[in-house]
Design goal:
With 175 residues, this protein is mostly beta strands. The protein has a single domain, classed as Immunoglobulin-like (Sandwich). The protein contains 1 helix and 9 strands. Strands 1, 2, 3, 4, 5, 6, 7, 8 and 9 form a 9-stranded antiparallel sheet that branches. Strand 2 and strand 3 form a beta hairpin. The structure holds copper (II) ion and zinc ion. Copper (II) ion (CU) binds next to strand 4 and strand 7.
């Protein structure tokens, strides 16, 4: 009986430590859908970490785009109407050039290219101090649009990366 209890305690404590640290608290999410017919093609989840940074886990399930690369950016407005055009241009709170995430200059929502496998599945995770969820702050991501493009971001062409048509769209909403 004593051993059984000790093992139970071990299992419970192992489970607790494996799921709490680093993951943070979920603070926002964005469902992604096709601009053509509103079909679900994935989602993004946003977590506030202990150090104040925000982590995004984005997942795409887009069979129509299997074995291809799609480009993902945050755009200025959270309105997916008019085939995603209502989101306007890339969200750019730091007034930098368009570019590859982590390079010398890039927009704060230049997530970049995501490779989709034979089922159209792909993921990307980004952790950054460029984002906040604080109202009226210039880097507040709440209410921004997320656009999935049907082409590849060349990380060079200004201000869009020449990423192709807007095939998917979502809006970041606070949890
Ligand atoms: Cu874009
Ligand atoms: Zn950009």
């Amino acid at each position: 009986m004593k051993n059984y209890l000790a093992i139970a305690v071990l299992i419970v404590s192992a489970a607790m430590t494996s799921c709490s640290p680093g993951k943070g608290k979920q603070v926002a999410h964005a469902p992604l859908a096709t601009t053509a017919d509103g079909k679900e093609i994935g989602s993004a989840q946003f977590f506030l970490l202990d150090d104040g940074k925000i982590k995004m886990d984005l997942e795409i399930n887009f069979p129509a785009r299997a074995d291809s690369t799609v480009a993902v950016h945050f755009h200025e407005h959270g309105d997916c109407g008019n085939m995603g055009e209502n989101t306007h241009g890339h969200w750019n709170p730091t007034k930098e050039a368009h570019g590859k995430w982590g390079s010398a200059a890039y927009h704060s929502g230049d997530i970049g290219n995501i490779t989709l496998d034979s089922k159209g599945h792909g993921t990307v995770s980004v952790t950054t101090d460029r984002w906040s969820i604080t109202e009226n702050e210039v880097n507040n991501i709440i209410g921004r649009g997320i656009i999935v493009h049907g082409g590849t971001d060349d990380y060079t062409t200004q201000p869009t990366g020449n990423s192709g048509p807007r095939v998917g769209c979502g809006v970041i909403v606070k949890d």
